[in-house]
Amino acid sequence: MANPTETAPALDNSAGPVEPAAPSCNHADGQARLPVAVVIPCYKVRSQIAAVITGILDRVLQIYVVDDRCPEQTGRFVQQHFANPRVAVLFHEGNQGVGGAVITGYRRALLDGYDIVVKMDGDNQMDPAYLPALIAPLLAGTADYTKGNRFFELYSLTGMPLTRLIGNAGLSFVNKLASGYWDIMDPTNGYTAIHRVALSLLPLDRMERRYFFESDMLFRLSTVRAVIRDVPMPAIYRNERSNLKVAQVLLDFPRLFMSRIGKRFFYTYLLRDFNIGSLETLVGIPLVLFGAAFGALHWIQSVRTGQFTSTGTVMIAVLPIVIGVQLLLSAIGFDMANRPDLPLQRLDSLARMPHGSASGGRDGRAARAGRTGKP
């Protein structure tokens, strides 16, 4: 995880403080721009960034280009070619990773007062035509965070490399365990949108800075009980070269996922609540481990001595495993049903209602306070 001292990077404020325009602000063809700010993390995307900015400049209110110490000086390139007050370029003094760049953009958007912040990559693999669909649940108040899902339609996967397809499928399942969002697919999709209420509750200083950022975001959102929605969209692949180092991912991701799984169980099923899912997990895991260890020990002894293991010994090994697995499956079923259904932005609106009103007041503020834990 990034050093906390790196979370306050030096920013280039040459564009000056941006005062959010009203959502009714129109562009050249008379249509209203989407009431969002877009954060674009940049690292080795100089050849694609112009197309990305051009594609969204007339669609949104504000763009934050975050140069993450790019060796191609993408930020300077944007300053030279887009002299527009709605395009602000922010610079990092040192490389912090994609997560660090996004967090810098998030902080600036919060400072400038935007309610919805979209994250798009600078490699031109995210179609701006899907922006309205991406932010629609946030505008309707039915979600706090939305993300693209390239797995919704079979035809949309035709351009995805097989290795990436298999890897994303595996990561999706592990992410479900780590975050508790069992109905969410394609966790590494970086085309996302978040409402300021949810964003302001996240511990940005403690979030992962590099390629685990998207997965860590889902985990952090689960700790504040944010509502997440998938938005179907096709996969777009051109000739861009990924900066992801596979060897590093294979070494780092298992450790990071195990950490998030353990933290989520502690905060959700031990600290903040103790329920049937807690009990099933705490009983099921020891049973499975005991049965597996007992069975393995006696199997090794049987091989060494050449003697058959008795039926009773086999049952002592098998029965705890069977019961433990059943308990763990039941706990997973409970976890799948234990998902948040009230968006934080609606809860925040209830908390702001006058004291003593039908649905707000003290109860609303108390409910909101219960979601502000920051593991």
Name the descriptors.
disordered N terminus, 7-stranded mixed β-sheet, 375 residues, alpha/beta, single chain
Total number of beta strands: 7
Q: Report low-confidence residues grouped into runs of 5 or more.
A: 1-24, 358-370
SSE run: EHEHEHEHEHEHHEHHHHH
Overall spatial form: elongated
Overall average residue pLDDT:
85
Return Rg in Å: 24 Å
Helix count, DSSP H or I runs of 4 or more residues: 12
Helix content: 40-55%
> How far from one another are the termini?
14 Å
Strand order of the largest sheet: 3-2-1-4-6-5-7
Largest sheet: 7 strands, mixed
Structural class: alpha/beta
- Tell me the fraction of residues in β-strands, as a range: 5-15%
Structure write-up:
- The chain is about 50% helix and about 10% strand.
- The protein has 12 helices and 7 strands.
- It has a 7-stranded mixed sheet.
- The radius of gyration is 24 Å and the shape is elongated.
